[in-house]
Design brief:
Helix content is about 60%, strand content about 10%. It is α+β, with helices and mostly antiparallel strands and about 425 residues long. It has two domains: about 200 residues, Serine Threonine Protein Phosphatase 5, Tetratricopeptide repeat (Alpha Horseshoe), CATH 1.25.40.10; about 200 residues, no CATH class. It has a four-stranded antiparallel beta sheet with strand order 5-6-7-8. Strands 1-2 form a two-stranded antiparallel ribbon. It has a two-stranded parallel sheet with strand order 3-4.
Length: about 425
């Protein structure tokens, strides 16, 4: 899941019968990460049966008595899940990171779904072991894992920003899920593999004796490819960084379900493990924005931009929060920067158009909405906003067409 960096999109709401009043949209993005911070949290020592205790110790920091009791009840459930899956998880060693991954995701699933996920992972590992040959090169070994995933019925898909268990239940694997599976299998087999997170993407890196290989959906790619496309600084995640990824992904899942307070707690955990990840701060800001805690959202976006000054999404999201506080001129400056960093950023054009509209700069608003529609002709929000500004200008026929197109797109979504 790469991921939520959330991007916020505004729609102008007025009481005009023809309009479709869409909510402000939180679109999900992939993850954009830097190297994980070195935190003194010993998650890498968890075992299948005692993972709950370590997670409890991690989660209880700063909670009051009532919150601790609630966490204890949830922890007991996790312990029951862990106990019920001992046999299912026996193929992977107790030290394998897969147990930590699934114990974090267990909150979002039924115990039988976690067991199904374990069985599918076990089948992949066992099949890799059967097909391994001593003469294989590191590249061949890594490619084998991707081949086995497909042999086991998993379809490699584009980034879907979902949890590992969700993918396993659907028999799919995006860049996050496939890389996590490769990492778990590699850890079990003693291969020197790491995970790398770049903007909107994750891939696997093999490093040993001065030799390195990058593999992405089963395809070998050079360092230069990632440097040029993602501005990669050649850093990799440590174990804490990987666990932070799982907490962040769970936060995204909770956000999709509108459980914003839970999402914020997940992002808090992720930030504690990896305080250098700009996108987690941005994600937390979006959850706070959903709770109308706009000033706090701005502070999180500020931190995201400080960590990654090239992060267009954070500028867009900060502009959105400032717009909500009626700081329209400041919002426009942030949208300008987002568009400068990403000239194809349709949502930033839409949002800037809305800010110009609120400042009664109608012609500028039309230009921005036109650009947003050209970049994303399936965006009902931009057509809706365009219809409103045309209505202000008395261009009723064109306004009606824009409203009708917005409604067609809404009905078709």
């Amino acid at each position: 899941m790469t991921n939520m960096s959330l991007q916020r999109v505004s729609t102008y709401i007025r009481h005009i019968p023809q309009l479709w009043f869409g909510q402000r949209i939180k679109g999900l993005h992939s993850f954009s990460r830097t190297a994980a911070g070195q935190q003194n949290i010993k998650l890498n020592t968890l075992l299948p049966l005692n993972h709950s205790h370590a997670l409890l110790e991690l989660n209880c920091q700063g909670l009051n008595a009532r919150a601790v009791r609630q966490l204890l009840r949830r922890t007991i459930r996790l312990g029951q899940i862990a106990s019920s899956r001992v046999n299912a998880s026996r193929v992977f060693s107790e030290q394998n990171i897969i147990h930590q991954m699934l114990s974090i995701e267990a909150e979002m699933f039924k115990s039988e779904e976690i067991t199904i996920a374990y069985h599918k992972l076990n089948s992949i590992l066992l099949r890799v072991k059967r097909q391994l040959k001593g003469s294989m090169t590191p590249a061949q070994k890594l490619k084998l894992v991707y081949t086995v995933m497909q042999q086991q019925g998993l379809s490699l898909v584009a980034n879907e920003e979902d949890l590992l268990v969700s993918h396993l239940l659907r028999n799919t694997a995006d860049c996050d899920a496939s890389s996590l599976i490769v990492f778990a299998v590699s850890q079990e087999l003693g291969w020197p593999v790491k995970l790398v997170l770049v903007p909107k993407h994750v891939f696997v890196r093999y490093e040993a004796d001065g030799h390195s290989i990058n593999i992405d959906y089963g395809i070998i790619k050079t360092d230069q490819y990632y440097v040029e496309k993602y501005h990669w600084n050649k850093t990799c995640l440590d174990l804490n960084g990987i666990i932070a990824l799982i907490f962040d992904n769970r936060g995204l899942a909770n956000h999709k379900l509108k459980r914003y307070e839970k999402a914020i707690l997940d992002y808090d955990q992720a930030i504690e493990l990896n305080p250098l990840d700009a996108e987690i701060f941005d994600n937390r800001g979006c959850a706070k924005d959903a709770l109308r805690r706009y000033e706090e959202a701005i502070l999180d976006c500020d931190q995201a931009i400080k960590l990654n000054p090239l992060y267009a999404n954070a500028f867009n999201n900060r502009g959105y929060a400032k717009d909500a506080l009626r700081r329209y001129e400041e919002a426009i400056l942030d949208y300008d920067q987002a568009i400068k960093l990403n000239p194809l950023y349709a949502n930033a054009f839409n949002n800037r158009g809305l800010a110009n509209h609120k400042l009664k700069r109608y012609e500028k608003a039309i230009l921005d909405y036109d650009q947003a529609i050209e970049l994303n002709p399936l965006d009902a929000t931009a057509f809706n906003n365009m219809g409103i500004v045309l209505n202000h200008l008395g261009q009723l026929g064109e306004a009606r067409q824009a409203f009708e197109q917005a409604e067609r797109l809404r009905q078709g979504s």
